[in-house]
Amino acid sequence: MAVVTPQIVEQVALLARLRLEGEALSATVAQLDRILEYVKRLQAIPTEGVEPTSHVLPLSNVMRADAPQPSLAQEAVCRMSPSAQPPFFKVPKVIEG
Amino acid sequence: MAYEPVIGLEVHLQLSTQTKLFCGCLTKFGAAPNSQTCPVCLWLPGTLPVLNERALEWGMKVGLALECTIAPVMKFDRKQYFYPDLPKGYQISQFDKPLAQRGGLAISAGGQPRRIGIHRAHLEEDAGKLLHDQHQTASLVDYNRTGVPLIEIVSDPDLRSPEEAYEYLVHLKAVLEYLDVSTCNMEEGSLRCDANVSLRPVGQHAFGAKVEVKNLNSFKAVKQALEFEIKRQTLALQQGSRIVQETRLWDAKALQTTPMRSKEEAADYRYFPEPDLVPFVIDRARVDAVRAQLPESPHQRAERFQRGYQLSAYDAGVLTQSRALAELFEGALKAGASPKPVANWLMGDFAAYLNAKGQAPETVKLDPRWLVHLLELIAQGTLSGKMAKDVFVQMLEQGQDPAILVREQGLQQIVDTGLLARVAAEIVQAHPQSAEDYRKGKASALTFLMGQAMKQTKGKANPQQMSEALKRQLQEGS
Questions:
Q1: B80: which chain A residues are within 8 Å (Cβ-Cβ)?
Q2: Is position A21 within any domain?
Q3: Does A30 fall in a domain?
Q4: Smallest Cα–Cα separation from B421: which of B381, B384, B475?
Q5: For chain A, does the N or the C end have fewer beta carbons within 10 angstroms?
Q6: B319-344 average pLDDT score
Q7: Within a 10 A sphere around the Cβ of B348, how many other Cβ atoms?
Q8: Does B26 reach chain A within 8 Å, measured CB to CB?
Q9: Mean pLDDT within A13-33
C-alpha cells in the first residue's frame, strides 16, 4: 500500500526544482515510500503529554549583539556567481510576481 | 443583494537595526549594490544564522505597543519558494509560534472609535531586490536587503471599508513611529502593505473568497485599490460569477487591479521548523523590561495634550497622529509659544501646505523656534495676518527663519498714520467714481478702494488702519 505516488514525487520535484525522470523517479518513489512507512511505525508510539520538539539540542536563546561585522568585498561577491553584471548578479529574466 | 466588504491588512515593517537579522552585515538603505552581503546572508554552504538580539527586542516593542501577548516560546520556520530574490530558496520566517499574537489597535473612523484586532506579528528576513528594466533578457539582483529584519503585522479581518483600512494604517503608522524602531518610510520600502478583501452578503457570517492585493505604494493606493476591488467583486457577484481566490496587483496609473501571473503551485510553502535556529524562551522578566521602556503612545500623548494644554480631543488627536507634528507642537511650546496659536498654525496653514504638496510633516525643514518667531512678529505688529500667511509659506519653501525673511525682504507692516493717510488720499483721488458711490451709501465701494490701497502698499498696510484712513479721507472729501 504505497503512500507516495509518482504524481506526488513529480509535484515535490517541481517545487524543489529537481528533474526526476524514468528510473530516478521510480527509485525516489520507492525510497520515499519506505521512509514514510518508517514514520508510520514511529507514529504508533504514544506521545500524549510529550511537548512537541522542533530541536533536539539542549539549547535555546542563541543570539548576538547588533554589532556590525565586515561584509564581503563587492567584487568578490560577484565573482562567486556563474553569471554577473557587476555590481549585480544576473539571472534569467523574471517578471515581478 | 447587498454585500459587505471584509478587509484585513498585512503590514511589513523594516526594523532599523544596525545589522541584519541573522548576520553582522549593515542594513543601510541606498548602499552600493551587493556591498552589504556575507556568506551568511548569501547562504553559502557551511554558514549558520544567529539571531540579532535587538531585532527580537524591537519586535517585542512592536508586539507590546499593539497590545499583543508575547509568546513564552518562539521559533523560526522555513518558508520555501524559488525566486531569485532569495539566495537560498527559502525565507526564514515564523509559522505556528510567532513572536506576538492577539492584540488590537484603537482607531477612529468617521468619528467613531473602533478597535481592530491584531492577529499576529512575527519576525522574518527580507528578500533581495530585483531590477527588471536594466537588461533585455536578464534580471539583475542586489542582495543588500536580503536578511534585513522585518516584522509582519497581520490584522484580523475586522475592517469593513476602504476608509477604515486607511485609518487603520494611519493609526498603526503613528504607533510605530513613536517606537523608534523603524523609519516607517513607504517610499524607501521600510513600511509595506498588502490587503486582503472579500465580500459577503450582509448578515452572512461566513467569509467569501478572498483576493490579496499587492503592489500598494501608499496609504492612498491601499484605499483606491480596495475601492476598485469592492466594485469589481460586487459587479461579478451581481452577475452571478464566482470570485476567484487569487493575488492581484494594483496599477497606480491605470487605477485598477490585474491578476498576478500565478506562480505555479507556489502557494505550497512547505513550512517546517528552521533547524539552524534553536528555540527562544522569552521569560516574563524580559517582556516586563521591554514593556517598562515603551515610549508614550500617540493615544497617551493626545490625552496629555488635552489635559496639559487645554486642547480639544479633536485637536489633540490631529496633532499626535504624526510624531513629527506632535514634536513641532511641543517644541514650539518649549521655545515659549502658547498652545492655541501654534495648534492653529499647524492644523491650518501647515496642514493645508502639506496637503497641497502631498508631503508628510517629517519631510519639511521646520524648526519649532521659527513658529515662535512668526507668532512674535504678529504680536509685535510687524506682520499683518495676511503677511504672516505669506511669510509662513516662504518659511516652509526656503527652510528659513521668518525673522530673517522679514529682515531680508524689508517686510514690515505699515503703521505710520501719515504714510497711510497719503496712500488713502491718492487712492480716493484716482477712483472718484468709487468714492462717489461710497458717499452715496454703497459700502462695497470701500472694499474695492481697500483692495487698491493694499495693492499699492504690496499688502504691507495694516488693514485696520488703512481702512480707517480711507474712511477719513472719504469723509473729508465730501
A1: 15
A2: yes
A3: yes
A4: B475
A5: N
A6: 93
A7: 12
A8: yes
A9: 90
